[in-house]
Write a sequence for this structure.
C-alpha cells in the first residue's frame, strides 16, 4: 500500500552551461527525516526548486503521494530556503498571515494558528513589530513558523540551523522532531554532518549532479564500516598477523589506545581472548564512521576521479 | 487568480498606508489651487500705495504719468541731489529724473531708490518715457500726431476650430498648455509607477523573500499582482487628486467671492442694496486681470472634458501596463536599485523620446510625425494625449488604442519570460544581451 511520500524518477535538469541534475531518482518515505547532502553547487537547490515547482525538470517526473506534481500540491509543501528573507517594512503578524494565505489558508484560520504559534514560542509581543526591528534570529523564528503554519505534509528545510544560537537551535530541533512525530516528512538539506547524525533517518548524497549515495542511515554506516576497532588498555600487547595495528597512541604512562583492523581468519571473539590474556582492557568498540568521514570520503573520491584524465 | 488578488491587496495596502503617499496626495491639490488662488489673493492684498517722485526738467511728461491704485506719481521741482537726500525722509519709493535733453539723449533717464525697483515699475516708466520721446521726435520730423495715433494698430486674431459643424472660439494657447500638462502628467505618472514596480521587484529579490513566494505562486501571478496593485495605487492617487482639487478650489473660489463682495460693500456705502453690490462685484471681476482669466476659463470650459478624462485614464493604464512590465523585467535581473538605474535606460528611452517629440507635436499636431508618434505604442500614451486638446479623428484614436493594448500584451509576455528567470538568478552582472537570451530559456 505504502508508496513513498515523495518520489523523483530519472530527473534531469540542464542549464546552458552545465547539467544541474543527472538522472536523479529518490524515494522519500512518509514520516521520516531525509537528509539531502552534498557539496556546494552539487544540485541540491535545483532539486529543491523542482520539488517546490519553482522550476520544472527537463526530463523525468516527481510524484507526491503517488501523483505527479500539480499546482494544488503547493499547499502540501512548506519550504524554508537557505537565504532567508521577509518584507522588512511589513509587520510580522500581517506578513505571516499573508504568506499563510498564499499557501491557501483563510484569513481567520491563518490568524488563529499563527497566534497559537506565537504563544508557543513566547513571542506574542512581536506581532505588531516591523521585521526590520527584529534581530536576525528572531526573523528566522518567524520564518520557520511561516514554513509550517499550513501544516504541510512535506517540509523542506535548507540549512535550517544557520544563524541560530544554540538555544534556539535546540528549540528548532525539538520542533523538527515534533513535526516528524505528527507524521510530516522532512527534507533536510545541510552541510552540518552532526545534525545529520542526530536527526536524519535516511540520506541521499548528491555530488556533481548525481546521486552517489542513498539509503537508511544505519545501512550506509554499515556499508562504510571497515572492520576496525578501538582498544584502550594498560600493559603491552602483541598481536598475530590477522590483526593489523593501524595506529597506537599512549594516553597516559603505560595506557594505550590502538586501532586494529581484523583481517581474514580473525574475529572479534578471538581478538578479545588474545587481548584479555595479555593486558588490562579498559574499553573496546567498533569504529563506526561518522557522516563527516563518509561525506569527505565519497565527495573526495569523486573529486580525485574527476582530476584523472 | 485568487492569489493575484492577495498579492495586489498587499502591494496596494502597503503603499497606501505609507505616510509619503498621503503627503503627495494632499500637497498636489493644494499646489494646484495655490497656482490660481495666490494671484487673486495678491489682488486683494495689493493695497500698498507707492509714491514715485518725478523731477521733469524737460517739462514734457506732466500728463503722461497717471497715478493708479499701485503708484502715486508726484512732480517735484528740486535739484536731484536734494531730492535724493530727502528720499528716505519723505517715504518715497523711487525718484525718477528726466533730464531736459531727454529727446536727444534717451539714455539720460535715471531712477533712484533705496531698495531696488521692481522690474514692472521700471518697465512702466521706461515705456512711458520711450513713447513720448518717440512722439516728440516724430513731431520734430514734421509728422502729424493724428497720423501717429491712427497708425497705432493692434492685431489680435480670433481663432476658431471647426468641429462637428459648429464654430467654436478656440484658444490655441490653452490647447497647447493643456496638451503639455496632460502629456507631462502622463509621462511622470507612468515613469513614477513603473519605477515603483521595479523597486518592488528588486526589494523582493534582494530580501530573498522571492524564493518563498514563488514556492507558493507562479512568477507571472506575482508580477501581475504587483503591477496591478501599484497601478491601482496610482489610480487612487489620481482620483483623490481630482476630487480634492475640485473640492479645495471650489472652497477657495467661494472664499474669494465672499471677499470680493465684502470689498465691494466697503467701497460702496454701507446702505447699498444687494443689487448694487452684485453690480459692483460684476464690474470688478470683469475689469482688470479678471477678464483675461474669464476668457481662458471659457475656453477650458468648452473643451471636451469627459473625452479627455476617459482617454487619459485609458492611456494612463495602457502606458503604465506597457512600461511597468518592462520595468519589472529589469528589476528581476538586478539586485540593487542602483544597478536597476543603469539597466533601465533602454526601457525609458522611448518615454524620453516621446517627451522630446511632444514639444514638436504641440506646435504641429496634424503633422506626419505627430500621427505616427501617437499611433506607435512606445510613444502613443504621451503623444496622443498631447494631441487630444487639438482634436483628433476617432479612427486614429481607435487604432492607437488597439495597438497599445496589443503592445502591453506583448511587453507583458516578454517581461514575464525574463522575470521568471531573473528572480532566481543571483550574483551575476546582467547585460541586455543576457536578458534577451532569457526569453528563450526553459524553466
Amino acid at each position: 500500500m505504502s508508496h513513498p511520500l515523495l518520489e523523483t524518477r530519472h530527473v534531469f535538469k540542464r542549464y546552458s552551461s552545465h547539467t544541474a541534475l543527472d538522472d536523479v531518482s529518490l524515494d522519500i518515505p512518509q514520516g521520516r527525516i531525509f537528509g539531502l547532502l552534498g557539496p556546494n553547487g552539487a544540485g541540491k537547490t535545483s532539486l529543491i526548486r523542482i520539488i517546490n515547482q519553482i522550476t520544472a525538470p527537463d526530463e523525468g517526473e516527481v510524484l507526491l503521494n503517488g501523483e505527479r506534481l500539480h499546482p494544488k500540491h503547493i499547499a502540501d509543501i512548506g519550504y524554508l530556503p537557505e537565504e532567508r528573507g521577509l518584507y522588512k517594512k511589513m509587520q510580522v503578524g500581517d506578513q505571516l498571515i499573508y504568506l499563510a494565505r498564499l499557501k491557501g489558508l483563510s484569513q481567520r484560520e491563518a490568524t488563529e494558528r499563527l497566534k497559537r504559534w506565537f504563544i508557543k514560542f513566547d513571542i506574542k509581543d512581536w506581532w505588531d513589530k516591523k521585521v526590520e526591528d527584529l534581530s536576525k534570529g528572531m526573523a528566522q523564528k518567524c520564518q520557520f513558523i511561516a514554513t509550517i503554519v499550513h501544516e504541510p505534509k512535506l517540509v523542506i528545510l535548507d540549512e535550517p540551523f544557520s544563524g541560530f544560537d544554540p538555544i534556539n537551535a535546540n528549540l528548532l530541533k525539538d520542533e523538527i522532531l515534533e513535526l516528524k512525530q505528527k507524521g510530516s516528512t522532512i527534507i533536510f538539506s545541510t552541510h552540518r554532518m552532526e545534525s545529520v547524525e542526530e536527526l536524519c533517518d535516511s540520506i541521499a548524497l548528491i555530488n556533481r549532479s548525481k546521486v552517489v549515495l542513498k539509503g537508511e542511515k544505519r545501512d550506509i554506516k554499515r556499508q562504510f564500516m571497515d572492520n576496525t576497532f578501538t582498544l584502550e588498555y594498560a600493559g603491552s600487547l602483541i598481536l598475530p598477523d590477522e590483526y593489523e595495528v593501524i595506529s597506537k597512541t599512549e594516553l597516559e604512562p603505560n595506557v594505550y589506545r590502538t586501532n586494529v583492523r581484523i583481517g581474514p581468519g580473525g574475529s572479534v571473539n578471538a581478538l578479545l581472548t588474545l587481548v584479555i590474556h595479555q593486558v588490562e582492557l579498559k574499553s573496546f568498540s567498533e569504529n563506526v564512521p561518522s557522516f563527516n568521514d563518509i561525506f569527505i570520503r565519497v565527495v573526495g573520491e569523486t573529486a580525485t576521479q574527476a582530476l584523472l584524465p | 487568480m485568487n492569489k493575484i488578488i492577495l498579492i495586489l491587496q498587499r502591494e496596494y495596502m502597503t503603499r497606501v498606508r505609507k505616510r509619503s503617499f498621503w503627503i503627495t496626495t494632499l500637497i498636489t491639490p493644494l499646489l494646484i489651487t495655490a497656482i490660481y488662488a495666490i494671484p487673486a489673493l495678491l489682488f486683494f492684498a495689493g493695497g500698498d500705495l507707492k509714491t514715485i517722485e518725478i523731477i521733469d526738467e524737460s517739462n514734457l511728461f506732466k500728463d503722461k504719468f497717471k497715478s493708479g491704485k499701485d503708484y502715486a506719481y508726484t512732480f517735484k521741482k528740486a535739484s536731484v541731489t536734494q531730492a535724493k537726500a530727502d528720499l528716505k525722509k519723505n517715504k518715497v519709493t523711487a525718484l525718477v529724473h528726466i533730464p531736459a535733453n531727454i529727446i536727444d539723449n534717451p539714455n539720460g533717464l535715471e531712477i533712484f531708490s533705496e531698495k531696488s525697483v521692481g522690474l514692472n515699475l521700471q518697465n512702466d516708466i521706461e515705456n512711458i518715457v520711450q513713447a513720448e520721446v518717440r512722439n516728440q521726435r516724430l513731431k520734430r520730423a514734421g509728422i502729424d500726431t493724428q497720423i501717429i495715433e491712427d497708425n497705432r494698430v493692434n492685431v489680435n486674431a480670433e481663432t476658431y476650430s471647426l468641429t462637428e459643424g459648429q464654430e467654436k472660439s478656440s484658444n490655441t494657447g490653452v490647447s497647447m498648455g493643456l496638451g503639455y500638462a496632460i502629456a507631462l502628467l502622463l509621462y511622470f505618472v507612468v515613469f513614477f509607477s513603473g519605477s515603483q514596480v521595479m523597486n518592488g521587484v528588486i526589494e523582493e529579490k534582494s530580501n530573498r523573500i522571492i524564493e518563498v513566494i514563488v514556492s507558493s505562486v507562479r512568477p507571472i501571478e506575482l508580477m501581475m499582482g504587483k503591477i496591478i496593485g501599484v497601478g491601482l495605487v496610482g489610480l487612487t492617487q489620481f482620483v483623490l487628486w481630482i476630487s480634492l482639487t475640485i473640492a479645495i478650489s471650489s472652497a477657495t473660489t467661494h472664499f474669494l467671492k465672499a471677499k470680493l463682495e465684502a470689498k465691494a460693500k466697503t467701497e460702496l456705502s454701507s446702505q447699498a442694496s444687494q443689487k448694487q453690490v452684485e453690480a459692483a462685484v460684476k464690474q470688478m471681476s470683469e475689469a482688470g486681470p479678471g477678464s483675461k482669466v474669464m476668457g481662458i476659463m471659457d475656453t477650458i470650459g468648452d473643451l471636451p472634458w469627459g473625452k479627455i478624462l476617459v482617454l487619459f485614464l485609458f492611456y494612463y493604464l495602457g502606458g503604465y501596463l506597457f512600461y511597468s512590465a518592462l520595468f519589472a523585467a529589469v528589476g528581476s535581473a538586478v539586485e540593487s536599485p542602483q544597478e536597476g538605474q543603469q539597466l533601465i535606460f533602454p526601457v525609458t528611452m522611448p518615454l524620453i523620446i516621446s517627451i522630446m517629440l511632444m514639444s514638436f507635436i504641440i506646435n504641429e499636431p496634424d503633422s506626419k510625425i505627430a500621427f505616427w508618434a501617437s499611433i506607435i505604442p512606445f510613444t502613443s500614451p504621451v503623444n496622443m494625449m498631447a494631441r487630444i486638446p487639438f482634436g483628433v479623428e476617432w479612427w486614429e484614436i481607435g487604432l492607437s488604442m488597439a495597438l497599445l493594448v496589443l503592445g502591453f500584451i506583448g511587453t507583458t509576455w516578454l517581461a514575464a519570460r525574463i522575470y521568471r528567470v531573473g528572480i532566481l538568478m543571483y550574483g551575476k552582472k546582467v547585460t541586455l544581451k543576457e536578458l534577451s537570451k532569457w526569453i528563450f530559456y526553459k524553466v
About this structure: The mean pLDDT of chain A is 90. The two ends of chain A are 47 Å apart (CA to CA). Chain A touches chain B at residues 16, 49, 52-56, 58, 71, 74, 77, 79-81, 83-90, 98-99, 101-103, 143, 146 (CB under 8 Å). Residues 100 and 209 of chain A are 33 Å apart (CA to CA).
